[in-house]
Structure formats: C-alpha cells, structure tokens
UniProtKB/TrEMBL annotation:
Family: Belongs to the iron/ascorbate-dependent oxidoreductase family.
GO terms for biological process, alphabetical: gibberellin metabolic process
Gene Ontology terms, MF aspect: metal ion binding; oxidoreductase activity
Domain Fe2OG dioxygenase: 227-327
The protein, known as: Fe2OG dioxygenase domain-containing protein
Keywords: Iron, Metal-binding, Oxidoreductase
Cofactor requirement: L-ascorbate
Keyword Oxidoreductase listed: yes
SUPFAM superfamilies per UniProt: Clavaminate synthase-like
C-alpha cells in the first residue's frame, strides 16, 4: 500500500474540468471539483455539501477540556507529573480530549507553519492540483474529498504528508519540489521541522499517557518510537450557508492520538459528549490532544476515542494543523497485559495499523463506529486466524 513514500506528479481532475468548475458545480456529474476561491462566494452551496439535519445540530455549550501543563513533567517534577497524569486520565476516560501548554514547541515555528499553510491554500486551484493526492495515499492535496465521495462532502481542502521517522529528512521538501517546483523548498523545510517537533511532543505525551494508565512509562513511547505519522493542513473557507454543511463530518480518528493546532480566534472544533455537541475554543499557546481508535484498542477500551467534527463560518475562513501519530505499519496493536485483567475479555482483536488504514481508505468511511465495524470485519474475514481472537 502507498503510505510512507511520496506520490509522483498527478494532475487530477483534468485541467479542462477545472476550467469549467462553475458549470460542474451545478451539474449531476460525479467529477465534482471544489474550488474554494469560487465556492466561498456562492449564495447557495452545491447539493453535494448538504449534510443531514441530524448530523449538523448546533453546539449547546463549551467543552471544559482539561489543560495539562507539561513544564513540570519535562523537568521531572514528581508532583507536577502526577497532577498532569491525573488530568490526562480524567479526560481520556470521559471524552478523550485535553489541551497541553508549555509543550516546548517554538511559537515562531507554529506561526511559520500556519503562515505557510495560508500561502499554499491561496494558490490558484490548478497549481494546488499539481500535488493532487492519489488513491490510498496520504500524500498531497484534496478539495472536499470529492475524489472519494459524492455526497456529504466536507467544506474544506487539505494538504497532507505521511511522515516516517526512519525516512530521509528531506522527504517533504523533495515531494513539494517534485510536484510544485523549487520555490516550495522553504515550505517543505517548515513542515519538516514542524513534523519533527510534533513527533517529539507526541512521544512525550505517550509517556505521560503510559503513566496515567499505570503502565511502564516507557512502554508506549517505545511502541511508537519507530512509528509513522500523518501531517495535515486544513483550510475551511467561508461558506454562505454554514448551517447546511460541515467542515469535517462527525467521526472518530482511526489513528492513535491527534495533536491539533487551532488557528487564532476562529471557532470550529466541536466534540460530542454528555448528549450534545460542545465547542472547543482555540487557546493561545495550546495544542488540542485527542485519543483515536487505535489507542482505544491499545488501552483495551479504557481510554475513549470521541466523536468530533468541524463547523464552518460565513464570515471568516479557518485553518488548522493536525498531526496524527500511528504505529509502524506492521506492528501488532495489542494492549499490554496489565490492561487486561485476569478473566477479562479483550475488547478488540489484534490488528496492524496498515490493516486499519487500508480499511478506512477502501472499505469504510470513518464515522462513530469505525473501530467496532473494523473489528467485526476482521473477525469475519477469510484472513482471520488465532492472532485475531479476543482472548485475555
């Protein structure tokens, strides 16, 4: 499967289709093209973007996600580490979301990464499509995922990189240069440095999560030390009918943990907990962290992968940067023995990240039941073996 290496140059959709984007926006053609510059000003959004009313009810309150100060943890202060671990435990057994501050990531790098994303998304569509994402790849640009889906399209465009810690450090600059030109070398270097900072932070968070679960503090750090990751830049353009659509539909992340940087003061992230949607407001100097399906399985269901979504804005566009930590593709996801009590049934079968990733790309659109559906699919598939049995 294509995952940890860049894709070659691909122009998709064809250029003649791009040039007729206004005509296509109102047609029944399956080859729909999302051009943020054009569609942000349309009084009525295309029907492909209209979501069912049941999935777009408004948020009623703000989520009071715990704010975890990592300074004492980094300094090795025992009391501070215990407090941080308790906050993580409380959040992850409830809804799976918390924020981290004093995380050690340079503010100038954060600002540079956001500014670079803005520069890319302001490019003409024909230029962005030179880095068009290929099927089953995590590299490149996509507009509203219209290459994969024909309804309930998200009102956003993304630029993604798959990052293997063992790969060449020039892999992101090389990809952008090959697809967009030498003038994008600096952009590649910015995201190379940002990915490295996110890798370091994610492994530290995994160590803290291990402490919070009563597992050897090095266990999850080592489990993910040779892992892979996905870096995604999100752009949510203005929308003239924001009440009819979503920037990202309700879903649980299939990955292990997500580290999200929200831009400035533009709201958008919402979490479903306590029977309703709750807004997670951007917090200066903080990253939002949430548990994904892979880690929920790795913790034998102790920590929760929570339903969340992104809404859009009529007045202002919004950008965010998401870093998804994943295990090495062939590493078996199995909870440590201490998280499976004697006589307790395993909640999920063994699997590899490659299997789950492929399932979400070819079999199933990620939603609230991705992990449960994937587990059922594994156990019923012809490839089932003793490795998959949910034994203690």
């Amino acid at each position: 499967m294509e995952y940890s290496s860049p894709t070659s140059l691909l122009l998709c959709p064809p250029i003649d289709l791009i040039q007729n984007v206004e005509k296509d926006a109102g047609s029944d053609s399956s080859s729909f093209v999302f051009d943020s510059t054009h569609h942000r000003n349309q009084a009525s959004i295309p029907r492909q973007f209209v979501w069912p009313a049941s999935e777009r009810s408004g948020a009623s309150n703000e989520l009071q996600a715990p704010v975890v100060d990592l300074d004492g943890f980094f300094r090795g202060d025992r009391a501070s580490t215990e407090l941080a671990a308790e906050l993580v435990r409380s959040a992850c057994t409830d809804h799976g979301f918390f924020q981290v501050v004093n995380h050690g990531v340079s503010p100038s790098l954060v600002a540079d990464a956001l500014a670079t994303a803005e520069e890319f998304f302001k490019l003409p569509l024909v230029h962005k499509l030179r880095a068009c994402r290929k099927p089953r790849s995590m590299w490149g640009y996509t507009g509203a995922h219209s290459d994969r889906f024909s309804s309930k399209l998200p009102w956003k465009e993304t630029l993604s990189f798959a990052n293997d810690g063992m790969a060449s450090q020039s892999v992101i600059p090389d990809y952008l240069i090959a697809n967009l030109g030498t003038e994008f070398h600096r952009m590649g270097k910015v995201y190379e440095r940002y990915c490295k900072a996110m890798e370091d932070l994610s492994l530290s968070i995994m160590e803290l999560i291990g402490i919070s679960l009563g597992v050897d503090r090095s266990h999850f750090r080592e489990f993910f030390s040779d892992g892979s990751s996905i870096m995604r830049c999100n752009n949510y353009p203005q929308c003239q009918e924001p009440e009819l659509t979503l920037g990202t539909g309700p879903h649980c992340d299939p990955t292990s943990i997500t580290i999200l940087l929200q831009q400035g003061d533009v709201d958008g992230l919402e979490v479903f907990t306590g029977g309703g949607w709750r807004l997670v407001r951007p917090m200066s100097g903080a990253f939002v962290v949430n548990i994904g399906d892979t880690f929920m399985a790795l913790s034998n269901g102790r920590y929760k992968s929570c339903l969340h979504r992104a809404v859009v804005n009529r007045i202002r566009e919004r950008r965010s940067l998401a870093f998804f930590l994943c295990p090495r593709e062939d590493r078996v996801v199995r909870p440590p023995g201490c998280l499976v009590e004697q006589g307790e049934a395993r909640k999920y079968p063994d699997f590899t990240w490659a299997e789950l990733f492929d399932f979400t790309q070819t079999q199933y659109r990620a939603d609230t039941r991705t992990l449960q559906t994937f587990a059922q699919w594994l156990l019923s598939s012809n490839t089932s073996s003793s490795r998959r049995l949910c034994s203690g």
